[in-house]
Amino acid sequence: MFKKIFYILKPFIPRSVQIFLRQKLVSNRREKYKNVWPILPSSGNPPDNWYGWPDGKKFAFILTHDVELQSGHDKCVQLMQIEKESGFRSSFNFVPERYIVSPDLRKELTENGFEVGVHGLNHDGKLFSSHSVFSKRAIKINEYLKQWNAVGFRAPAMHHILDWQHELNIKYDLSTFDTDPFEPQSDGVSTIFPFWVSKNGSNDGYWEFPYTLVQDFTLFVLMKEKNIDIWKRKLDWIAEKGGMALVNVHPDYLCFTGKSGVQEFPVQLYINFLKYVKKRYNDQYWNVLPRELAIRANTLFNQSVNPKVD
């Protein structure tokens, strides 16, 4: 109920006030959750049927980006270039009906070896307000998935009802996390490994890839951290456990020039993180696109399943 009321009132609350209130909330909760965040020890246990990453890689490293607004959309090429020059690839998830998603941008990303996915439909907090609302919107989401040749989805604000999401024509979903008590829907999935979401116990379904590194907005905007120590600590633990290091960095919050705004942080922090990964774990990580991981996951788990699209 509180979540529904919040999204009704949200358009009338200034963004700066929203951030201030969330900063206070997160600050008050950090000490309470220190034993389960940023590391939940039990989430490092591998699945029983786990065969390990390809070519003997120590861990998977997956970069994803949710593009919230037009301002973030217009920063995507700069972000892509930074990653490309560093030898990384990532996926960019766009909100189809919140701003104009340029076909030229989508083409440029995919032609450079990056991936495009769908990030909700309107980003208004109402996608999961009822099953009928979700089903109606799922029809339009599927149209965008087909139009964009996309096979992946992430819901806004990490809202999720995994059973409902079988109505989406996807190979994978990114709407969960191993542990994150600071999210509006804070039910973590307690694993740093991919897992299969079966439809009614059948072989049909989709792969779920939870994010396992704290989101940039939480770390740098809400917690106001000035370094990447938390990212590094969690990454080192994931590497030790042989899991999946998956991060969500929003172009909207990156500041490429000048002084950072109230909801921005210097892009250099992200660059430093990429440098850390490349230097410390050279040739030990598998930088894979979510689309590629969904294709390979059957082999990694030694099982036969059928994602919904080819």
Over all CA atoms, what is the radius of gyration?
Answer: 18 Å
- Given as residue ranges, the uncertain stretches (5+ residues, pLDDT < 50) are none
Q: Tell how many strands the DSSP assignment holds.
A: 12
Give the proportion of residues in helices.
25-40%
Mean pLDDT: 93
Query: Which CATH architecture?
Result: Alpha-Beta Barrel
Plain-language structure description:
By secondary structure, the protein is of the alpha/beta class. The chain has a single domain, classed as Glycoside hydrolase/deacetylase (TIM Barrel), CATH 3.20.20.370. The chain is 35% helix and 15% strand. It contains ten helices and twelve strands. The strands form three sheets. Strands 1, 2, 3, 8 and 11 form a five-stranded parallel β-sheet that branches. Strands 4, 5, 6, 7 and 12 form a five-stranded mixed β-sheet that branches. The radius of gyration is 18 Å and the shape is globular.
Question: Features of this protein?
Answer:
five-stranded parallel sheet, globular, 35% helix, 310 residues, alpha/beta, 15% strand, single chain, five-stranded mixed sheet, TIM Barrel
Layout of secondary structure:
Elements: H1 2-9, H2 15-30, E1 59-67, H3 70-73, H4 76-85, E2 90-94, H5 103-111, E3 115-118, H6 131-147, E4 152-153, E5 172-173, E6 195-198, E7 204-208, H7 216-222, H8 229-241, E8 244-248, E9 254-255, E10 265-266, H9 267-280, E11 285-287, H10 290-301, E12 306-307
Parallel strand pairs: 1-2, 1-8, 1-11, 2-3, 4-5, 5-7, 7-12, 9-10
Antiparallel strand pairs: 6-7
